[in-house]
Amino acid sequence: VDVLLKAGGDTPIMRTKKWAVERTRTIQGLVDFIKKFLKLMASEQLFIYVNQSFAPSPDQEVGTLYECFGSDGKLVLHYCKTQAWG
Amino acid sequence: SCSMAGEEDFFLEEKRFRQFCEEFVKHSQQIGDGWEWRTSKDFGDGYLSKTHFQVRNRHIPPDLKEKNNDNTEEMLFAHVEEPSDDSQAAGVCSTEEVVRYEYHVLYSSSYQVPVLYFRACFLDGRPLTLDEIWGSVHASYQARLQEGPWDTITQQEHPILGQPFFVLHPCRTNEFISAVLRGSQEHHRNINYITLWLSTVGPVVGLNLPLSYAKLAPEQSTAAAV
Description:
The structure holds 2 protein chains of 2 kinds.
Chain A: E1 2-7, E2 18-20, H1 27-37, E3 46-50, H2 62-69, E4 75-81
Parallel strand pairs in A: 1-4
Antiparallel strand pairs in A: 1-2, 3-4
Chain B: H1 14-31, E1 36-39, E2 46-57, H2 62-66, H3 72-80, E3 96-108, E4 113-122, H4 130-135, H5 139-147, E5 153-157, E6 164-168, H6 173-182, H7 193-201
Antiparallel strand pairs in B: 1-2, 2-3, 3-4, 4-6, 5-6
C-alpha cells in the first residue's frame, strides 16, 4: 500500500514522504516508525489522522484504511506531534 | 503553561459543540454505536453519553492451573484460605466478568473544549479503580496515557450527575486540536471536532470509534456554484 505522509501543525516534515507499507502494518507500527525516523523523544507523542479529521485506533491496519480512504492509488495520512511532556 | 495561546486557536463554542454532537449522534444511530444526547432538567446543558458492556477475561493464577489434579481437594482447600480481599482469587471457576463502562462528553466553558468523563463498574455495582480500567486497555494505549496531550486523569464529581467520574483533564486539548487543524484551513470547517477529538483521546480509556465516523464530514461543498 502506498502511503503519503504529511506533517501537521509544528511537526517536522519527513524528507521521504512516500512509503510502501504492508497492508497488515498497524497505525501503532507506523507511529513507532515515524517517531524513530524523526528522532522524536520518547516523551513526545505522535498521532496519525486520516482525512485530517479522524485518528484511527492504534491497532487499525493500513490496508483497511487504504481501502476506505485511499485515492489515486495512495493513502494520505497526516501526522501530528505533541510537545514534549514534563 | 496551559494558558499559552497559539497563533491560531480553534476554540470550540458551545453552540458548535452541540451541533457537532448532534451530527455525531446521528451517525452513531446509523451504525448502532450507542451514543445518545442527554439533557438535564435542572441545567441547560446537555451531554453525550454512551454505556457499553464488556466481558473481561480474568487471569487464573498459573499455580492453580498447573497443580496436580490428584490433589483436587487440596487445591480447593488452598483456594478457600486465600485472603478475601484478593480480588484476583475470587471465584475459581469464573474466568470472565462483565464490566459496565460509561463515557460522557461534556462541554467545558472555562476551557472551551469538550471533556471526557468516564467510569466503570462490575455488575454488582463495585466500581473499578483506575488501575483496573487500565488493565484492560491495550499496551500501546497505555503508553499514550503517560505521554499523551493531557495533564492528568483525576476523579471528579460529574457536573450534572454529581457522582464521581474519572476525567481526562482538558488543559491541553485545545493545543493538540489546534495543531491538527492548523494545516487544513479550508478543510477544517467540515471537520467534526468531536470526532477528531474523541478518536484521539478515546483509545486511552478503552473507547474506540469505528472507522465510519471518519466519513462524517458533511457532503456539501463550501465552494460557490457557478
